[in-house]
Amino acid sequence: MALPSQADIVIHGCDIVTMNDAGDVIRDGVIVISDGRLVHVGPRADIGDIAATTVIDGRGRIAMPGMIDAHVHTAQQLLRGKLAEMSRLGPLRNPPWKNYYVPFEALLDPEDIYLSGLLAYANMIMCGTTCFAEAGGPHPDEMARAAVETGIRGFVALTTSDLNTSFAGRDMPPSMMMTTDEALARNIALVERWRDHPRVRAWMSLRQIIVCSPTLIAGMADAARAHGVKIHTHLAEGTYEVDYALEQHGKRPTEYLNDLGALGPHLHCAHSVILSAEEVDLYATHRMSACHCAFGNYGIGVPRLQEMWRRGVDIGMGTDGAASSFTLDLFQVAHAARVGQAAAIGHAYHQRVPMSGEELLKIATRGGARAVGMGDELGCLEAGRRADLILVDTSDLDHMGSMDPLFLAAHCVVGRDVRDVIIEGAVVMRDRRLLNIDIEALRARVNERRARIMERFDAMVQS
Predict the structure, then answer these.
(1) Cα atoms in the 13 Å half-sphere on the side-chain side of 170
(2) Over the stretch 250-271, which tens digit does the pLDDT of each residue have?
(3) Which residues contact 212 (CB under 8 A, 6 or more apart)?
(4) CA 61, 62, 63, 67 torsion: positive or negative?
(5) Burial zone of 220 (CB within 10 Å; 0-12 exposed, 13-18 middle, 19+ buried)
(6) 421 DSSP β-pair partners
(7) Interval 2-14: pLDDT, tens
(8) In angstroms, rounded to a whole number, what is the distance separating the alpha carbons of residues 22 and 30?
(9) pLDDT at 1 (0 to 100)
(10) Residue 236 and residue 254: Cα distance in Å, rounded?
(11) First to last CA, the chain
């Protein structure tokens, strides 16, 4: 790609962890950005001076692709820490999604969701996340509005249920239920409303096989294929789900979806933990995408992360939202996955490091890009790709002792080390100052509104 005489952004002097196929790490590099794209990524000696609207001094920092959160619940942002607080008063009912998370979402009005979105997406940006995939919640247009304003890239979705079964906990709240025809129509309309935005798009969603009818599942798969979008769902998330599928349909969950003709590259499956060998075969054969949520998955079972990654399944990393993992920092999720993999499969096979920090970082970037259907556009720094990247500081005591940028990025960096964030060629955070959001005003609104939401939630869970 020819270098322009005038660029939008030039970053010079940084060490570049490209995450490209060759694993290139460029010392004292330069990055040139124009029209939302990476025009040049290479050593500073390769090019002369280029005039730019914005020049960023990257000395002492690592430039790397932005993290991609492949499974998050925007609507649960204000529930952070609440279940931990409740557990100190007495045992919680399982599974949490049906007993607490969905009922909480049902209490929220559009303004609550918009505020949750502003908080969640600002939090993500400050942790180095540049793209997210929303699992599905109420009022997705308000999520999209918040995403547009913060400057993040994302895929929003509408939580979708048409089957009110009492299996695995309390009934679904009436406001979260739809008829089958309504569920299909609302998902299609959402996708069409956000089809043309450069950063924020919409997917379809199926909450869980337990609360979605066979007719809806099959119809949604057909609609996703016709409209060229993904369906975000939860799959193989709990033993209760396997028992339900076997009891009701005589098949394990993935096999049941296969019988309905619902599998394919359009199906994005969060968690994907309790899978038989035959189900993993289905993931690989049908090119389904998946998401590993390390803070929760190891409490469910032994995740098939390594096996799926090596077999070419498009799997990324996800936080699962602030309510369940308590953090939106994907660096911490990747660190947790390294420990989880060592305990779950390393111990069993006497393998000290079954998945390195470097490989897990690749899953959080390249794998996440593939999982959200943007594998050719995001996830690594090379000319021609979209300019979604972060600059992380390496001057802290936690970083000293190593001069290896890839090691530092994979093993030592956490979200608070992120200094600058660029998304679609626009600077959205500079020196840890968000450019599109007033944090103090947001904090005041959150503190005031969360108190009123929790009053309603406490009354609901005590009933």
Answers:
(1) 19
(2) 999 999 999 999 999 999 999 9
(3) 160, 161, 162, 163, 206, 220
(4) negative
(5) buried
(6) 390, 429
(7) 677 789 999 999 9
(8) 18
(9) 60
(10) 8
(11) 63
| CB burial string 134-172: b at 16+ within 10 A, e below | bbbbbbbbbbbbbbbebbbbbbbbbbbbbbebeebbeeb
- Other CB atoms within a 10 A radius of the CB of residue 346 amount to 18
328 vs 46, 201, 400, CA distance in Å? 37, 21, 25
Buried b (16+ CB within 10 A) or exposed e, 266-296: bbbbbbbbbbeeebbebbeebebbbbbbbbb
With b for 16 or more beta-carbon neighbours within 10 A and e for fewer, the 228-237 pattern comes to ebbbbbbbbb
Q: Which residues contact 217 (CB under 8 A, 6 or more apart)?
A: 206, 209, 257, 260, 262
Is the Cβ–Cβ distance between 420 and 31 less than 8 Å? no
Q: Hey, what are 97's tokens?
A: 């999604």
241 pairs with which residues across the strands? none
Using DSSP, state whether 410 is helix, strand or coil.
helix
Q: pLDDT band at 168, cuts 50/70/90?
A: low
Burial of 385-409, coded b for 16+ CB within 10 Å and e otherwise, reads bbbbbbbbbbeeeebeeeeebbbbb
Q: Which of 178, 278, 184 is nearest to 236 (CA)?
A: 278
Query: Above pLDDT 70, what percent of the chain?
Result: 99
CA distance 149 to 147: 5
Reference 138, options 88, 173, 185; nearest CA is 173
pLDDT in tens, 17-58: 999 999 999 999 999 999 999 999 999 877 777 889 999 999
Return the CA Rg of the chain. 22
| Distance, CA of 152 to CA of 426 (rounded, Å) | 10
Rounded to an integer, the average pLDDT of 435-457 is 95
Which residues lie across from 76 on neighbouring strands?
none
